[in-house]
Prior knowledge:
Blueprint: E1 2-12, E2 15-26, E3 30-35, H1 41-49, E4 55-56, E5 64-68, E6 73-75, H2 88-93, H3 97-115, H4 119-134, H5 140-150, H6 167-181, E7 185-189, H7 197-208, E8 213-217, H8 221-227, E9 230-235, E10 238-243, H9 246-281, H10 288-299, E11 328-338, E12 342-351, E13 355-360, H11 366-373, E14 381-386, E15 392-395, H12 408-415, H13 421-430, H14 447-461, E16 465-469, H15 477-489, E17 493-497, H16 501-507, E18 510-514, E19 519-522, H17 526-556, H18 562-611, H19 614-617, H20 620-655
Amino acid sequence: MNYKIVNGSISFGAETVLEEINFEIKEKDKIAIVGRNGSGKTTFLKAIVDNSMLEEGIGEEKFGIYKQGSPNIGYLKQMEFEASNDTMLDEILKVYEPIIKLEEKIERLAKELEISQDERLIKDYTNSLDRFEQVGGYTYKKEYEIAIKKFGFSEEDKAKKMNQFSGGQRTKIAFLKLLLSKPDILLLDEPTNHLDITAIEWLEGYLKDYPNAVVIVSHDRMFLDQIVNKVYEIEYATMTEYVGNYTKFEEQKRANYEKQLKDYEYQQAEIKRLKAIADRFRYKPTKAKMALSKLKQIERMTIIEEPSKYDLKTFHTNFELKTESGKMVLTVKNLQIGYDKPIAEVSFELFRGQKLAIIGENGIGKSTLLKTLNGDIPKLGGEFEYGYHVEKGYFDQQMEFSNPENTVFDEFYESFPNLTTTQIRTILGTFLFSGEDVFKKIKVLSGGERGRLQLCRIFKKGPNLILLDEPTNHMDIVGKESLENILKEYKGTLIFVSHDRYFVNKIADSLLIFDKDRVTYFNGNYEEYRRKKKEQEEMLDSNTNLEKSAITNANDKKAYTPQENEISASSKKENSYFINKERNRMKNKINKLEKEIEEKEKQVEGLQKEMLEDEISTDYEKLKELQDKIQELNNEIESKMSEWEEINTQLESKEGF
C-alpha cells in the first residue's frame, strides 16, 4: 500500500492554507502531523480523504495524487450509527462481521464432520481454521472486551442501546469502532482529547502494534514519542518531513535551523568580502579582471536563504507571589466528595512549594475534588483546612465567565479596576491579546483564547496556591511548553488535574491517583509511578500464572470415565494434527529469527569497521550517525533475541505433548 501527494496545495478562496504539499504514506507507517493551532492540520487530514480539496502547489514538480492498492481510509468524522436502537455490543460486533461469519462456518463444518469424513469437508475445515487464525479469530473477543473496558465502559454498558448514551459517549464508541475496523490508513485528529490516562496508555499500545498505517494530529508529545516513526511539520503554510519520533523531530529541526543559519551567515560574510574586493579594484585597469572574477564567483553561488525563525509566538508572564504561605498549605482528611452521594474519599497533606498532579479515569471525582477545595460545591463528609496566609487561584476547565457580552478588556478591567488602560493592554499583550483582539467579546473566543484569558487573570492576582483543572486542553505544543516553563518557575504551591502525561511528568513532584475503588497518594513523579506500577503488574501476572499452572496440574490428574476416555482419545488425535502444525510453524519462525539476528550482527560488525577508517574517525557527525545506526541495530537484535527465547520456551512446552 502506498499513498502519495506531490506538489499539492489547499486554498479557500484567496486564502492559501498550504502552498506546497509533498507527503507520502507507506504501509505500516506511523506518521504525526504537527504545527501550531490554525496551521491547517485538520484541514490536511480532510484533504487526504477528500482529494477534491487539493490543487497544484507552487513547486516545480507536476501535481499528482498516487494511490497503490486502493487503500481503505478510516476517519472518525465518517463514522455514523445506522440504527440507534442497537446495543453498544451490536455496534461493536458489526466491525467483526466477516470473522463472525467465518466462525459460524467453522462450527457448521465441525458438525458435518461428525457425520461425514469427506476429504473436501476436511480440507475446507482446515483452510477455514487457517483463515480464522490469520484474521484474528482467536483474539477478536478479547480485543474488543479490553478496548471497551479501557475506554471507560462497564459490562452493563454493552447491553445499553445507543440512544441511551450521551453525544460524547457515542463519539467514543464510534472511535472504538474505527480502531477495531483496522482500515489501511487510520486518520486520527487529537485522539487523546477527553480520554483519561488509562485509555490513552491502552490506545498507545494498540497503535504501536497496529498492522496498517496511522496518521495522527496530536499535541500529546509522550503519545507521539511512543508511536510515530515520521513527523510532518506544518509551519508558514509549508510542510516539512522529519524521520523519527517527536523528540527526534525537535532535535533535527533545531540542528537543521542552526546549520542553515550558520551556512547562511558564512555565505553572506563571503559575499560581503568578495564584493568589497570587487568594489576596491574594479576601477584599476590592472586589477579589473580580478574584480570581475570575484563578481562572477558570487553569481555562481547557490544562494542560501536565511532560515525562518521558529513560530514560537506564545504567552509569557513574570509571575510574582503577593504573599508567601505558611509551610503547611492544605490538610485533607477523609474528605468525601460528590454531588448527591460520595464518589470518592480523599486524604493527603500539601506543603509549600509542592506540585501535586491529580490523575486517573474520567468521571470518578478529579474535577469534583478541585471544585470542593475551591468552595464551589459542599463537602459530603470529612474535612479539609487551608494553612496560614494561603491565597488561591482556580482555573476551571469549563472556562465559564459571568458575562459573555463582556470584551476581553472589560473582563480584565473588572478584576483589576486600579490598572490603567496601558497597563491592562500590556498585560493582555503578553497573553497574545494585542490590537483589536482586546475588544473581542467573551462569547466569540475560542477555547484556547478563553484559557489564556483565565490564566492571565489568575497569574496577575499572584496567588500562592493554584488549582488547575485541565489547563492544557486547548493548547498547542508551544503553548503547553510555555505553561510548563511558567509553572516550573512558580514559587508557590500547585494542584492540577491533567491527562497529558508529558505535562504531568515535567511539573509534578507527587501524584494523587483516582481509581474506581480508592484514591492513592504517591510521592514521586509520573515516570517513577509508571515504573513501580509496571513492576507490580509483572509480579501480579507472575503469581496469576503460578495459580493457573497449579489448577492445570490438578485438572490433569482427575479420573476419566470410559466414555470420557474415548472422547478424549478422539480429541487428542484431532488436536495432534494442529499441534504438530503449530510446532512446525514455530520451528520455521525460530530459523527465520536466527538468520535475521546473524545478518544484523554482520551489519554491526561492518559499521564498527567503518568507524575505524581514517576519514571517518575524525568526522564527529559521521561517527554519531554510525553510532546511532549501531545502537538501532543492537536494539533490533535484542528484540529479536527476546522473541527467539519466547518462541523456544513455547516450543519446548509443545515438544512434551
